[in-house]
Amino acid sequence: MDVWVAKRLVFTICYKERFQFYPYNERLLLRWVLRNNSMKKAFIEGKKVYLRTIGTEDLTDVYRDWLNDSEICLFNSHHRFPNYDENMKEYYERIIKSRTNLILAIVDRGTDRHIGNVALQDIDFLNQNAELAVIIGDKDFWSRGVGYDACSLIMTHGFTELNLHRMYCGTFGDNVGMQKLALKLGFKPEGISRGQVFKNGSFKDVIRYGILRHEFKV
């Protein structure tokens, strides 16, 4: 639900019921309306965020611009070529709706804002493994623990519902934030692919991490 629509609904309720201490009750009701409406769409619920499916209505200029932002894409494979609306639609049909990728929107529970995506990519059901990937596109939510919450949720789902045995991820040697996140999630370093990726004017080492189902503890 849009925040503006929620506020109008809360105002109508407060006015109709003649609530005392109106501003205080408005804040409580707004929080309740947003939370309860949001949870109806949730695929997986967390403490700070919830994960839901990505629809065509999410293919906005805001989402597109995440992938065109050099700071957001500093440590990933995007921002080589510009992303256009046509690219987003093709990505949605070919990748997001694929059964070999589970890509979910990360949504802040307090504001119902789509703030990023988290994914299990290249799911191999025969060998029971998949790659973990996450992007927090909304800079207002950087360094607030939402990446850990979102990754924990999709990893739990992958191990318990998709019957995965192993997950892996990789990150640039200078991406200290993702390295800390991987270790916090329980991943173990498995090696370094030297000079594997050319990004930001130089070749980057990629640190490889892996985790087995019995090693995962939230």
The helix content, as a percent range, equals 25-40%
Please report the distance between the alpha carbons of the first and last residues.
30 Å
Instruction: Please work out how many helical segments DSSP would assign.
Output: 6
Share of β-strand residues? 25-35%
Rg is 19 Å
Low-confidence stretches: none
Question: How many β-strands, per DSSP?
Answer: 8
**Major sheet strand order:** 1-2-3-4-5-6-8-7
Mean pLDDT: 88
Q: Sheet with the most strands? A: 8 strands, mixed
**Shape assignment:** globular
Helix and strand run:
HHEEHHEEEHEHEE
- Strand-pairing-aware structural class: alpha+beta
Write up this protein.
This protein is α+β, with helices and mostly antiparallel strands and 218 residues long. Helices cover 34% and strands 28% of the residues. It has helices spanning 3-17, 22-39, 61-66, 85-96, 146-160, 176-184, and strands at 44-45, 49-52, 102-108, 114-124, 129-136, 166-172, 188-199, 202-212. An eight-stranded mixed beta sheet has the order 1-2-3-4-5-6-8-7, covered by helices on one side. Strand 5, helix 5 and strand 6 (166-172) form a beta-alpha-beta unit. The chain is globular, with a radius of gyration of 19 Å. The mean pLDDT is 88.
Name the descriptors.
globular; alpha+beta; 218 residues; 6 helices
